[in-house]
Amino acid sequence: MTKGIVIREAHFPGRAPIEAYGNGGFRFADMSHRGSLLCLPSGIYGWEPADPLALTAADFAKLLNEADKIEILLVGAGKDLRPLPAALRAALKAVGIAADPMSTGAAVRTYNVLLAENRAVAAALIAVE
Fold first, then answer.
1. 11-125 — its CATH code?
2. Which residues pair with 43 in a beta bridge?
3. Continuous segment of H or E residues that includes residue 25
4. What's the pLDDT tens digit per position in 32-59?
5. Given CA atoms 84, 82, 116, 122 in this order, what sign does their dihedral have?
6. pTM, whole model, 2 decimals?
7. Which site in 37, 69, 107, 126 is 20 to 30 Å from 53, CA atoms measured?
């Protein structure tokens, strides 16, 4: 019987500020992650939306399961600001989450400030090169 490498879902079980971003990933809690992130009250997860240019409520299923612990969602949309699709804004509003799209850099900085203030914040961060 051969044992191969077990690939697990990327998950850090806690809240941590983002120390750095760029080169297609992020650094936090003295670790690095290649790809996008979803920072929730339950932890930081590797996140790969189906189409980063057209986010949907399905991309935020894990976040919606924790909606009662989140007031503000920062969406780091990459290098440029992109408005959120109306259907996604409506789905978030329906569960009481205010969504604020911005560039990934601005979202990281704002997330760190709100996290330090112990606010009910979550972030969806699309990796940038």
1. 3.40.1230.10
2. 40
3. strand 25-28
4. 999 999 999 999 999 999 888 899 999 9
5. positive
6. 0.90
7. 69
